[in-house]
């Protein structure tokens, strides 16, 4: 053994910060005292030295301390509650009384038993039992620590933040290689990171001033001096764990049976408690508020957003997972995933992708796993509502519009699907790629509407740092619809149809047309039901425009229709805003993102809190931004650069009620058709048994919700119509 590892026993628990990293005039406890005061509001005068009779009780209870003068306590203090334990370094214990702490059915008396404590602050009425090694932690009030093998903090702990401490080499900084395995989109994790931050950092790599400033801001806010102690927040419970090192634990967190937690922050509060369960291993990352990780999950170089879940052996590596997401069983590598992502199956695999939320991965989906280049530098980019079906296999590099569903199959080449709400099918029998535009609107409104409902219903965040757009019809998808109409009309013209034929799709019976550039191959590519797709897209755009403007008008009862026109005409830019960005689930005009990038690059913002305040300003502007876009969309729908007069708008209001009634009926029919399927009925003895097992379509809770929302929608349209 090297001699440098042999140290004087009397120094056990001391010299936490090397002398060369201590500020002038400061001792090794300067950061500890600052943390204690900021987090738990205790100052040096809140502790006292032990009385001789207290020391006597402690020693009679088989306790050892290297120096009782460095063992401080707070009143009231009951020394009989400490026994069979060893104390080293500078130890401070809060008030200690004969009380019983309870977490569910787990009851532990306050006090310290059979444990080793090294240079720690322990809060009021906390219970520590059978903990073999607790070093350099500030432990809050009413905590329970039981059967923990190792709980320690090093002097260079970063608690999952991608920073370096004084004297450290740049090489030790922890990066997360999101979106691309090659590392060209690497980001630094930090405690308050949300999906918008990760997107901004990873997707504007040509903006070198931005990237440099984001690194500087993160280092300045979370890096710096050595010597921060680990913190365990008030009311936290940690039991039956092996190794917890350089880990910050928020208040009311519950950690049970974890194998290894190292260099992470576990954000938790009484309102949004986080839980980590059996067999979990987490290294180098951030666990968000109200998160859950259970049953053997592994996470390495990661960020978990608020109210997200890892379950059943899931692996999250080099990835940022957005708020309100659930991942179980599967493997996720090198991804940036926006809020509301569902991936539940053991045989699904997602690698090197940007998935922009409201997404769902089916069983056996292998997205990006089959590399087809000389290097592992490909990417998948999918906008909102991405839904690869059973056993779908996709190659890098591929791009998908919003709400694309992909039918079962192994897709042999890269894909570029610009048509939103479409169905993509790999027809191996005819050796061609088939795309049906507006499939969801025409054939599965139940799934489309339910996706939006789930997005709202699963948003259990108590503190909503960022707006998540849940409506499938918003400025981003509306612009995709407009682009899709241009694409379809172009292919129809190429197929020999005149503009008059295209504008009268009901008179045409063409079932498919050829297209190109949707797949990187020489095989056939066709668009199925092009005219039905055009009709559906126009209906969707009309529905979006009318309901958005009507909702805005309804929320401003002081306006008459002429005042609405003046407001929207004055607020709208000269041309319709065509470029919208999905910044972590928040939809925002691209010019606002560009302005933020410019200001960051110029050094206007000093920390991430200031940047997040800009997202708040986007949120405040979004309702008007969205309404102005919808207002301008009328010009595209009607081919005129003028506002609708009152009479025309009234007609649109009447038409949108009809569309809403059609949506409601389609949602019901989408669900009810299952009850007429003879194969589905075959598993039941009779219709009565099927109804008792599955319920009746009209009793479906989501269908009832849709019906209720339709009533509210129609009432809103009627109110607006009376004011028009």
Notes on the protein architecture:
The protein is of the alpha/beta class. The chain has 16 helices and 43 strands. It has a 27-stranded parallel sheet that branches. Strands 1-3-6-11-14-16 form a six-stranded mixed sheet, with helices on one face. The protein is elongated. The N and C termini lie far apart (87 Å).
Give the tags.
27-stranded parallel sheet; single chain; alpha/beta; six-stranded mixed sheet; 43 strands; 724 residues
Give the gist of this structure.
By secondary structure, the chain is of the alpha/beta class. Helix content is 31%, strand content 23%.
Question: How are the elements arranged and paired?
Answer:
Blueprint: H1 30-40, E1 48-49, H2 52-60, E2 64-65, E3 71-73, E4 82-83, E5 86-88, E6 91-93, E7 100-103, E8 106-109, E9 111-113, E10 116-118, E11 121-122, E12 127-129, E13 134-135, E14 137-139, E15 144-152, H3 195-203, H4 208-222, E16 230-232, E17 237-249, E18 254-256, E19 260-266, E20 275-276, E21 281-287, E22 292-293, E23 298-304, E24 309-311, E25 315-321, E26 326-328, E27 331-337, E28 341-343, E29 349-355, E30 359-361, E31 366-367, E32 380-382, E33 387-388, E34 393-394, E35 398-400, E36 405-406, E37 416-417, E38 423-427, E39 432-436, H5 439-443, H6 445-457, H7 475-494, H8 499-503, E40 512-514, E41 524-528, H9 530-554, H10 561-571, E42 580-583, E43 586-589, H11 590-601, H12 608-638, H13 646-672, H14 678-681, H15 687-694, H16 701-723
Parallel strand pairs: 2-5, 3-6, 4-9, 5-10, 6-11, 9-12, 10-13, 11-14, 12-15, 13-15, 14-16, 15-17, 17-18, 17-19, 18-20, 19-21, 20-22, 21-23, 22-24, 23-25, 24-26, 25-27, 26-28, 27-29, 28-30, 29-31, 29-32, 31-34, 32-35, 33-36, 35-37, 36-38, 39-41
Antiparallel strand pairs: 1-3, 7-8, 38-39, 40-41, 42-43
């Amino acid at each position: 053994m090297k001699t440098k590892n042999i140290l004087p026993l009397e120094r056990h628990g001391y010299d936490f910060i090397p002398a060369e990293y201590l500020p002038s005039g400061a001792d090794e406890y300067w950061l500890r005292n600052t943390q204690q005061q900021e987090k738990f509001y205790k100052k040096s005068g809140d502790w006292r030295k032990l009385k001789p009779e207290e020391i006597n009780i402690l020693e009679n209870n088989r306790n050892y301390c290297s120096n009782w003068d460095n063992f401080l306590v707070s009143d009231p203090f009951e020394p009989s509650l400490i026994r069979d334990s060893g104390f080293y370094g500078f130890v401070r214990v809060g008030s200690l009384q004969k009380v019983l702490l309870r977490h569910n059915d787990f009851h532990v008396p306050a006090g310290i038993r059979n444990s080793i404590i090294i240079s720690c602050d322990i809060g009021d009425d906390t219970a520590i039992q059978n903990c073999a090694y607790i070093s350099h932690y500030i432990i809050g009030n009413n905590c329970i620590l039981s059967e923990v093998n190792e709980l320690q903090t090093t002097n260079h702990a970063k608690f999952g933040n991608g920073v370096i401490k004084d004297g450290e080499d740049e090489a030790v900084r922890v990066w997360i290689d999101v979106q691309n395995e090659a590392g060209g989109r690497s980001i630094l994790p930090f405690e308050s990171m949300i999906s918008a931050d990760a997107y901004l950092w990873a997707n504007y790599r040509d903006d070198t001033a931005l990237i440099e400033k984001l690194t500087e801001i993160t280092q300045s806010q979370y890096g710096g001096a050595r010597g921060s102690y680990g913190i365990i927040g008030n009311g936290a419970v940690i039991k039956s764990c092996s190794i917890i090192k350089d880990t910050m634990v928020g208040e009311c967190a519950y950690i049970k049976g974890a194998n290894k937690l190292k260099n992470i922050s576990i954000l938790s509060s009484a309102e949004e408690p986080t839980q980590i369960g059996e067999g979990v291993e987490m290294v180098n990352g951030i666990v968000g508020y109200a998160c859950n990780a259970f049953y053997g999950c592994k996470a390495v170089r990661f960020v978990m957003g608020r109210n997200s879940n890892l379950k059943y052996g899931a692996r999250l590596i080099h990835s940022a997972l957005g708020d309100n997401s659930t991942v179980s069983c599967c493997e996720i590598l090198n991804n940036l995933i926006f809020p509301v992502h569902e991936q539940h199956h053991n045989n699904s695999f997602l690698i090197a992708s940007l998935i922009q939320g409201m997404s769902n991965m089916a069983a056996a989906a292998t997205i990006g796993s089959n590399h087809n280049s000389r290097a592992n530098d490909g990417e998948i980019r999918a906008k909102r509502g991405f839904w690869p079906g059973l056993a779908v296999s996709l190659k890098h590099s591929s791009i998908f519009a919003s709400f694309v569903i992909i039918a079962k199959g192994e897709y042999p080449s890269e894909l570029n699907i610009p048509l939103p709400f479409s169905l993509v099918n790999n027809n191996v029998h005819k050796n061609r790629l088939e795309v049906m535009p507006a499939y969801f609107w025409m054939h599965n409104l139940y799934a489309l509407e339910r996706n939006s409902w789930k997005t709202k219903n699963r948003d259990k965040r108590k503190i909503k740092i960022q707006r998540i757009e849940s409506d499938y019809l918003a400025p981003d998808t509306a612009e995709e619809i407009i682009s899709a109409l241009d694409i379809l009309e172009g292919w129809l013209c190429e197929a020999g149809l005149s503009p008059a034929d295209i504008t009268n799709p009901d008179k045409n019976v063409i079932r498919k047309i050829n297209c190109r550039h949707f797949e990187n191959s020489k095989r056939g590519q066709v668009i199925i039901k092009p005219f039905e797709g055009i009709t559906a897209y126009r209906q969707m755009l009309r529905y979006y425009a009318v309901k958005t403007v009507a909702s805005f008008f309804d929320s401003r009862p002081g306006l008459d229709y002429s005042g609405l026109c003046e407001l929207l005409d004055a607020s709208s830019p000269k041309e319709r805003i065509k470029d919208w960005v999905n910044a972590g689930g928040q939809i925002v005009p691209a010019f606002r993102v560009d302005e933020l990038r410019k200001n960051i690059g110029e050094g206007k913002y000093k920390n991430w809190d200031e940047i997040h305040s800009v997202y708040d300003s986007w949120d405040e502007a979004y309702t008007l931004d969205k309404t102005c876009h919808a207002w301008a969309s009328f010009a595209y729908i009607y081919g005129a650069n003028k506002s609708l007069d009152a009479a025309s708008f009234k007609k649109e209001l009447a038409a949108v009620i009809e569309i809403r009634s059609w949506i409601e009926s389609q949602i019901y029919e989408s669900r009810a058709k299952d009850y007429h399927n003879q194969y589905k009925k075959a598993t039941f003895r009779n219709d009565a048994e099927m109804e008792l097992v599955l319920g009746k379509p009209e009793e479906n809770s989501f269908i009832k919700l849709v019906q209720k929302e339709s009533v509210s929608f129609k009432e809103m349209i009627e109110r607006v119509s009376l004011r028009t």
